[in-house]
Write a structure and sequence with these properties.
The strands form 2 sheets. This protein has a 6-stranded antiparallel β-sheet with strand order 1-3-4-11-6-9, with no helix packed on it. It has a 5-stranded antiparallel β-sheet with strand order 2-5-10-7-8, with no helix packed on it. The chain is α+β, with helices and mostly antiparallel strands and about 240 residues long. It contains 3 helices and 11 strands. The protein is globular and about 65 Å long.
């Protein structure tokens, strides 16, 4: 029983530190499909002003409103195939810069690494190319579409890796180039690797595994002790093994 308990404790510690990263999206409403507060203001679109938190999980930032667009819009625009039915246009109904965007703060583990992914949308009837700036903590990068000019409703998968510096990290996606349309959909953050264990944790793991090895050696000794011709000795050894097991 002691061997099994020690083994279980050590293995749980190992898996908690070195186990594979959680695949769950750490963002709320990453594909903008939670339409609890969606109000069709015309054209199956809802405009959200700077500072708005009506879109669950997200806060609007930048210079002006963003447009939250549904599947029956008349603009010949569709959501990302990976994102559902709703998506964002970071230009709103305004031509050219400056643009707006959205942000969300998530819980993170200091020192752990994460991957931000999203789909960037473009369509030549609304002008190409378009792009945005993605920021995750101290990591930031500009992403620009590469639409040939003949690809209507092109969605391109983009990604940004980052290491968390604290227990909370803000994810921000703000338009930075385009004309009448900067599409955003299917936003996700997943943890890709745990933080490096502290020296004290390493020591605890080594002690735990050492204990497992010692216990297993004792059990092997119990199984092999006592010659076949010494039943009395075997009974004594069996009692001792039960006492230590």
């Amino acid at each position: 029983m002691k061997v099994k308990l020690t083994t279980a404790v050590a293995l749980m510690s190992a898996f908690s530190i070195f186990g594979s990263a959680q695949a769950a999206n750490l963002l709320t409403n990453g594909s903008f499909e939670d339409t609890t507060n969606f109000v069709n203001q015309g054209n199956d679109t809802m405009d959200l002003n700077v500072g708005s938190t009506l879109m669950p999980g997200w806060t609007v930032g930048g210079s002006h409103y963003v447009s939250w667009i549904g599947p029956t819009n008349p603009f010949n625009l569709t959501a990302s195939p990976s994102g559902g039915s709703y998506f964002l246009d970071l230009t709103g109904y305004i031509d050219g810069a400056p643009f707006s965007g959205v942000s969300q703060t998530i819980t993170t583990t200091p020192g752990a690494t994460y991957l931000l992914t999203f789909d960037l949308g473009s369509s030549p009837q609304w002008g190409v190319q378009d792009g945005l700036t993605a920021t995750a903590g101290s990591a930031s990068s500009v992403f620009t579409s590469t639409n040939s000019g003949a690809q209507t409703n092109l969605w391109q998968a983009e990604s940004l890796a980052f290491t968390a510096a604290g227990t909370a990290t803000t994810i921000s996606l703000i338009g930075n180039s385009g004309f009448n349309y900067i599409g955003l959909d299917n936003v996700s953050v997943v943890q890709t690797a745990a933080s490096v264990p502290e020296p004290a944790i390493w020591m605890m793991m080594l002690i735990g595994f050492g204990g497992i090895g010692a216990a297993l050696r004792t059990r092997r000794g119990c199984r092999s002790s006592g010659p076949a011709s010494s039943p009395g000795r075997r009974r004594v050894d069996a009692a001792a093994c039960r006492a230590t097991g």
